[in-house]
Design brief:
alpha/beta; oxidoreductase; NAD(P)-bd_dom_sf; EC 1.1.1.35; 3-OHacyl-CoA_DH; 3-hydroxyacyl-CoA dehydrogenase family protein; single chain; 283 residues; globular
Length: 283
């Protein structure tokens, strides 16, 4: 049974996972590398809770209790007591593998190690540890407090027990789970959105239609809540580029190859909502 959760990374995804975990009653250790990163993450969590209070979705007492359940730290060793560790760091295999090797050393044999990766095969991450059977994917969606889905991803050696721990946690914070039984790069959702998003960027780049009209076509023609270019801006242009590139490198399938426009936007710092400009301006 999961009682204490550690989240590695206090950014948009890690902070969101910590937020829903604390709100659901879990004790949360939130770790990042600098006090400044932790303060930004905690500030975002407080702001989100405040909005929920203003909208009547939680009481002020519940907000204060949830915040009190989050223990921030810059010390990786502090995550050792956790029953479940959820990693939400930069989407590069080398970064994640180095972290999981450290977690393998720090955490007890019974601890389940989970990655929030959206595209990197869990088998590759688990290979950095001596417990690949205890490593599982828990791919949450942004913004975590609002999005209802969680992809649970089996690596080649992921055990039924580890998958059950991940499901218990994800369902415990209010998510509906799907299970990815073979951890192909990109899993289910990132493969689908990457293919659609790369084609949308290519259509824009070649002048076939405007960003607004491409997104309108997907919203009204297919019933999507958001168009693909709006989704890229929300997710982060750099995040989408990394995810699609990871899938392309694994598959060599041209439909996942990033158009030049996407690379130029990342180089210029137009990363979407988080920088104020992407495919759309964000004031």
């Amino acid at each position: 049974m999961v009682q204490q959760v550690a989240v590695i990374g206090a950014g948009l995804m890690g902070g969101g996972i910590a937020q829903v975990a604390a709100q659901a009653g879990y004790d949360v250790i939130l770790r990042d590398v600098t006090p400044e990163a932790l303060e930004r993450g905690l500030g975002a969590i407080r702001t989100s809770y405040d909005r929920f209070v203003d909208k009547g979705r939680m009481t002020a007492d519940d907000r204060d209790a949830a915040l009190a359940r989050i223990t921030p730290t810059t010390d990786l060793e502090a995550v050792a007591p956790a029953d479940l560790v959820v990693e939400a760091v930069f989407e590069k295999l080398e970064v994640k593998a180095e972290l999981f090797a450290e977690l393998d050393r720090i955490c007890g044999d019974g601890t389940t190690l989970a990655s929030n990766t959206s595209a990197i095969p869990i088998t590759s991450i688990a290979a950095a540890t001596s417990r690949p059977e205890r490593v599982v994917g828990t791919h949450f969606f942004s913004p975590v407090p609002m999005m209802r889905l969680c992809e649970l991803v089996r690596g080649y050696k992921t055990s039924d027990e580890a998958l059950a721990v991940a499901r218990e946690f994800a369902e415990g914070v209010g998510k509906t789970c799907i299970v990815v039984n073979r951890d192909v790069a990109g899993f289910v959702t990132t493969r689908l959105i990457s293919a659609l998003a790369m084609e949308a960027v290519a259509l824009l780049e070649s002048g076939v239609a405007s960003a607004e009209d491409i997104d309108t076509a997907c919203r009204l023609g297919f019933g999507h809540a958001m168009g693909p270019l709006e989704t890229i801006d929300l997710t982060g242009v750099d995040i989408m580029l990394n995810a699609a590139t990871n899938v392309y490198l694994d598959t060599q399938d041209e439909k996942f190859a990033a158009p030049e426009l996407l690379r130029r936007m990342v180089a210029a710092g137009d990363l979407g909502r988080k920088t104020g400009r992407g495919f759309y301006p964000h004031g």
